[in-house]
Amino acid sequence: MKLAKFKKIILLLVFWPSIFLIYHSFLINFDTKKYWYSSNFSNKIDIREPFAKQLSNSAKIDDFDNQFELKLLLNPNFLSTESKEISNFNLEFIKKIEKSGLKFKEVKSSKILPIVWFYFDTENDREFFVKNSIENSFISRYIVYKNEGNKKTKPLSWFHYNDQFLNGYNYYLSKYLPKSGFDKFKESMSKNIKIVNFEEQAKKDKSTYKTPQTKVGAIEFEDEFNYNFKSYFNDNNIHINDLGSTNKWIKPITTKYDENEPYHSTLVSLILGSKLGIDTKSTSYLSIFTTNSQWQKAIEWMVETNNVRVINHSYGATGKDFYDYKEDAFFLDFLARKYGVINVFAAGNGAREYSDEKYEDHPWIDKKSLSLNSIVVGALDDNSEPWKIAKNKIADYSNYKTGQEYYELAKPLVVAPGRIYNPVTNFKDRFVRGTSFAAPIVTGLISTFLREKPNLDNDDNRLIALKAILSASAISPDYSDLTIKRSGYFEKYGSGTPDFKNMLKASENTYFISDQKKSDQETIFTSKPFWVNSNDKIKASLSWMFNAGLLKNKVAAPNESSYVSWWWFLTPFTPVGLPVAGAAAILDAKSKMNQHKNDFDKWSETHINSERLKLETTKKNQNGNFVSDYDLYLQKLDSNNNWVDVSWSTSSKSNDELINFKAEKSGYYRLYVKKFKSVIFDNSVEDKLALSYLVNNEK
C-alpha cells in the first residue's frame, strides 16, 4: 500500500511539472508564433513593414490583410537575360516548390526579374515554408512583409462588383455631378499650365489633329479608377490594369459615400493625359496596386508589355523615419539605365503633416523615390501665380530632405503647381493640393516634349537628356535666404519651376558625352564657345546615371555539366569490377559536385542574373559609391584670350550638377566637364552623360 502511494506521488511530481512545461511552452509559442521571424535565424531573411503601410499612413492599412506576403529573390543559373527565359525559370522554380509539397495559397512571378511572391493562409504556413526551403540554393533572399494584429479587411475579391451595378452607379454619378465641376477643373488646369509656360503648346495641340504618338503611364496605390471619366481621354483611350485596388467606388453598405472617396487615380490620370490635361495627344496607361508583387507587375505591364517609357508615381508615405535605398529603388534604376525609363515621383506631403492635433515635420524623400535615376517633383504653394514665377514659394508640406548620404542629390529636381480643382468626387465641391498633383504636370510636360523632340526619345539618351534639360530650363526661385547644395540645386526647390518653352530652347544646346577615358582628373568634354550679353543668365546642367550593376559582358552561373568528369560515367560499373577505380570515380564526382555548389553559391552571392550584379556587390566594386564624380565648369574668355573659370558645380555624390550664373560682362563663354573620380569597374557598362544649357534674360 505504501509502495502504491509512493508511486502515485512520484507520478504526480513528474506529471504536473510536465503539464506546466507543455502549457507554458504552448503559451510562449502562441505569443511568439506570429513573430517567428524576429529571431533572425538566417541572414537570407529581411523583415519589412507591410508594403501598403510603406505607402500610406491611413489607419485602414493596419487592418489590411496582405495574405502573409513573402517575396523571394532567386538565383538563375543561365546566361540569357531575355524576359521569356527569366519568366520560364520563375515558373519552373514554382513547379519545383509545388512538387516539394510546401503549402501556399497563391503565387505570382515577375516577367523581367528572377522574383516570385508567395501568399499564405496563416503565419504558420509562411514560417513552415521559409524554414523548410532555407537551404534551397536557388533562393537568394526572403523578404517577409509583416502581417501582424487582427486583420479586418477582407481579401481583394470581397470588393468585386458586377458591371451592371457599376453602369447604374455611373449614370447616377453623371446625373448629379455639379455642372460647374469641370469648368472649375479646366480653370485650375489653365492656371497651372500658364505657370509652367505650356499655354502655347496646349493651344497648338488643341488645334492640331494628331493621332496619339506618345505613351504615358501612371502607377497608383489603392484607389480604383472611376470608369465614368473614361470618355475624357482620346477615343476612350486609357488602358487600365487594376491589379488590386482596395478603395472602391462601390462601398460596403456600412460605409458613407462621402467618406474617403477613391478619386486619386482618376484625378492624376485626368491631369496627366486626358483631353483636359497636359499631354492631350498621348495614349494613357494606368495600373493600380496594393501589394509589392502588384507594384512589380504594374511596372512590368507598363515597360515590358506596353513599351511605356514615361511613368508617373504619385504615391508615398510620410513616415517619421527615413527609409534607406532598397532593392525596389535598385530595380527602378536598372529600368532607367537599360531601357531609358523615366520615373517621375511626387516628393510627398509630410514636411508639415497634421497628426494628433499638431503639425509634425516628416519631410523625407526616401524609399523608391530615392532611386538616383528618377525625377522627384515638389509642389508650389496655393498662392502661386503665372506672373511671379520666381517669387512663387514652395508649399510648406512639400518634402525635400533625404538621409545625409544622399543630401547632394537633386531631390527634388523641380517644383510645380500642386493645387487643382477635383471634379471626381460626388458630394464635395473642393480644391485639393499635394505633390501628387504636381508630379503629373511634369510627367505630362516630359511626354509632350519627347513627342516634339523625337530625336531624343531613345533608350540611351531619353532620361539623361530630360534631367539636364529640365534643370537648365527651369525658372530659379528669387529669394535671398535659400539653401543651395554643392550640386548647385536649391534644397527645397531643386532647379526651380519648369518652363516648357525654355525646355524646347535648351534642347538645341544639348550634348551627349561618353566617358571612355581611363584615368581620373581629366577633362572629358568642352563645349563650343557661345556669346552672352551682360546681365544675361547662364543656366547649365550635367546629368548621368547610376549604372545599377549592369555588366558589359554577361557572366553566366557555373554550369553543372562542366564540372562532371569522365570518371563519373564509370561509377555504375567500376565498384564491382574495379573497386579502386570505382572509389576514385565516386570521390572525384563528389568533389566536382561540391566544387560546383561552392562556385554557384559564390556567384549567387554577387549576381542577380548574368547581366546584373546585386546592390551590395555593385557598391563594393564602386568603393561604396553609387555614381562616378563628374564636375561642371563655366569659363569666360578674358581680354588676354585665356579661358578662365567663373563658376562651377563640384559635388561628389550627386549624378546631377547645376550652374546658375549671371554674366556681369558680355563675352564668349564655354562649358567643360571634368572627371574627378570614376567608379567604373572591369566589365561595367560605361557612363553616359548629357549636358544642356540655356542663356536668357530671366529676371
TrEMBL record:
In its keyword annotation, does this UniProt entry include Ribonucleoprotein? no
- The source organism is Mesomycoplasma ovipneumoniae
This chain's protein is named S8 family serine peptidase
Instruction: Provide the transmembrane region boundaries.
Output: 9-30
Q: Name one GO biological process term.
A: proteolysis
UniProt keyword annotation of Transmembrane present: yes
| Pfam families associated with the record | Peptidase_S8
Give residue ranges for domain Peptidase S8/S53. 291-495
Q: What InterPro entries does the record point to?
A: All0781-like_dom, Peptidase_S8/S53_dom, Peptidase_S8/S53_dom_sf, Peptidase_S8_Ser-AS
The entry assigns this protein to a family as follows: Belongs to the peptidase S8 family.
What are the leading ranks of the lineage? Bacteria, Bacillati, Mycoplasmatota, Mycoplasmoidales, Metamycoplasmataceae
